[in-house]
């Protein structure tokens, strides 16, 4: 058994020659002649192996046959880590007796179940390998070009793999950044097997929520930080497919949530990991956040208009307002389309891939350690629970202080309070697993209610900006109607905000009060 650590990048076939001539590969210690690789992937019709995170293939290399089982492992920032078992065989079908028992699921002990495993799809490509030495690490660079195919369909395959043979994982990101500076490589989080399964059984792209954050008591503060940031990046990247190829607007929303969670983690950890250590990363985060933010604001505004039109019978809209609302909806749709073009261009850009690669390098290298003094380094080694108690306590006091004069707040102050509550909300979810669930969950829920109430109050301000951008004059009947609509929403929410705030104040804290 071996643990495979590799970084996958998509390359346009037109850039293959540029890659081959890159100085980094020209200085390779060894270059292998192009090799034809033909792989057949096996599973049951119900994809039972896939459901258990297992990939099974037989690779044909000339007359040689090699069977491989890989675990699902993890794929973050293009970095894939998984266990694999390889065995040379004599036929074209897997020989299950040659795998160790722990490599196969228990249901494979039954011959009848084994008989259900059949070929599902194939990959057929040419591979060129280079072995390079980089800062003490041995890395195999592979250029794969060909196709993934089933009996009924095929898709092109063009990617670069950087596999760590020995040394540190951070060097994979460093090499990728060097190559990506000259060649428009993009992060590729989908394995060849994943592409094959999608081709075999196409499914509409789905949006993904963050999922549970499991910070364990045995983690240090620094280990928890790395775990949380990877989790946020995984949340971000898991929604790329639906934003690039799907229709559901929830994808953009989830990418924005992932970025907010990431920025909140960086802010919460400022006492241990200074802001200057990730200033450049934050700058690029702001760039992609703004592009996604524009699309999300148009989405929310469009939903508000649809809501108004669905309540037309209750609102007794005059013919002129009805007509102007329909015209406005058309204008808003045009802005949505333009915003999504900008989002998709950004996600396909080198800047975005460079951001992900840079985060990968920063996390694996733990670059923040370089300028920290001994005391600060020691603090990073303290238990995550100690840090959680400290940071949650500080932010809870900050939120309560900001909300003391809630009834007298202007909208701008309410917006600032909303940001503080968001920060606190993300912080509690990051560290919830360290505390009794029955105590942490009610507290987190009250924060979510407050955040929602304050978010609706903010919608009117955002809508005003969108109306200006849509070119809607301030003296039109529909503008007056919309101002009244949002004013009514704000008055209603202000009425329910005070009770929600009181409920929050009454919640017992679930962390240690320092």
Q: Give the spatial strand order of the biggest sheet.
A: 1-7-5-4-3-8-9-10
Helical content stands at 40-55%
Rg (CA only): 27 Å
CA(first)-CA(last) distance: 47 Å
**Overall pLDDT metric:** 90
Taken together, the total number of domains comes to: 2
Structural class: alpha+beta
User: Rough shape?
Assistant: globular
Order of helices and strands: EHHEEHEEEEHEEEHEHHHHHHHHHHHHH
- Residue windows where pLDDT falls under 50 for at least 5 positions: none
Contiguous helical run count: 18
Per DSSP E runs of 2 or more residues, the count of β-strands stands at 11
The third-level CATH topology of the largest domain is CHAD domain
CATH class identity of the largest domain: Mainly Alpha
How would a crystallographer describe the biggest sheet?
A: 8 strands, antiparallel, barrel
CATH structural architecture of the largest domain? Alpha solenoid
Roughly what fraction of the amino acids lie in strands?
15-25%
CATH superfamily of the largest domain: CHAD domain
Walkthrough of the structure:
The structure is a single chain. The chain has 514 residues and is of the alpha+beta class. Helix content is 53%, strand content 18%. It has 18 helices and eleven strands. It has an eight-stranded antiparallel beta barrel with strand order 1-7-5-4-3-8-9-10. It is globular. The chain starts with a strand and ends in an 8-residue tail after the last helix. The mean pLDDT is 90.
What keywords describe this structure?
514 residues, alpha+beta, Hypothetical Protein Pfu-838710-001, CHAD domain, 2 domains, eight-stranded antiparallel beta barrel, 18 helices, 18% strand
């Amino acid at each position: 058994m071996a643990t495979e650590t590799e970084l996958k990048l998509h390359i346009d076939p037109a850039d293959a020659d540029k890659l081959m001539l890159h100085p980094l590969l020209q200085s390779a210690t060894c270059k292998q002649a192009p090799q034809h690789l033909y792989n057949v992937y096996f599973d049951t019709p119900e994809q039972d192996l896939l459901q258990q995170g297992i990939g099974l293939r037989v690779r044909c290399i000339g007359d040689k046959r090699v069977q491989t089982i890989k675990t699902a492992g993890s794929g973050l920032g293009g970095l894939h880590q998984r266990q694999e078992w390889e065995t040379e065989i004599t036929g074209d079908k897997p020989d299950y007796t040659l795998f160790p028992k722990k490599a196969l699921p228990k249901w494979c002990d039954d011959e009848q179940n084994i008989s259900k495993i059949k070929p599902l799809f194939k990959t057929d490509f040419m591979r060129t390998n280079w072995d390079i030495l980089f800062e003490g690490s041995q890395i195999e660079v592979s250029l794969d070009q060909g196709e993934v195919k089933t009996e009924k369909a095929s898709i092109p395959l063009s990617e670069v793999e950087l596999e760590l043979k020995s040394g540190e994982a951070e060097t994979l990101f460093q090499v990728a950044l060097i190559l990506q500076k000259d060649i428009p490589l993009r992060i590729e989080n989908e394995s060849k097997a994943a592409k094959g399964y999608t081709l075999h059984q196409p499914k509409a792209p789905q949006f993904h929520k963050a999922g549970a954050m499991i910070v364990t008591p045995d983690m240090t503060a620094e280990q928890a930080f790395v775990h949380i940031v990877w989790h946020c990046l995984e949340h971000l990247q898991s929604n790329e497919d639906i934003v690039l190829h799907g229709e559901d607007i929830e994808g953009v929303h989830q990418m924005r949530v992932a970025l907010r969670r990431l920025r909140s983690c960086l802010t919460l950890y400022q006492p241990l990991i200074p802001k200057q250590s990730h200033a450049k990363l934050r700058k690029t985060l702001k760039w992609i956040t703004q592009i996604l933010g524009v699309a999300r604001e148009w989405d929310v505004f469009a939903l508000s208009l649809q809501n108004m039109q669905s309540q037309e019978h209750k609102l007794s809209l005059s013919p002129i307002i009805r007509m102007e609302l329909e015209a406005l909806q058309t204008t808003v749709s045009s802005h949505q389309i333009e915003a999504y073009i900008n989002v998709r261009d950004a996600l396909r850009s080198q800047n975005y891939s460079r951001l992900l690669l840079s985060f990968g390098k920063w996390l694996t290298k733990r670059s923040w350690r370089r300028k920290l003094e001994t005391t600060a380094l020691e603090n990073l080694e303290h238990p995550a629970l100690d840090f959680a108690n400290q940071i949650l306590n500080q932010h809870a006091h900050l939120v309560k202080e900001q909300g003391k004069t809630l009834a007298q707040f202007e909208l701008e102050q309410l917006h600032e309070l909303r940001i503080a509550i968001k920060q606190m909300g993300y912080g509690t979810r990051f560290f919830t697993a360290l505390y009794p669930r029955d105590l942490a969950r009610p507290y987190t829920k009250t924060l979510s209610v407050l955040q929602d109430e304050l978010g609706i109050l903010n919608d009117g301000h955002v809508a005003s900006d969108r109306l200006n951008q849509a070119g809607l004059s301030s003296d039109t009947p529909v503008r007056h109607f919309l101002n009244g609509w949002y004013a009514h929403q704000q008055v209603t929410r202000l009425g329910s905000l005070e009770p929600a705030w009181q409920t929050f104040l009454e919640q017992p804290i679930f962390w240690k009060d320092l």
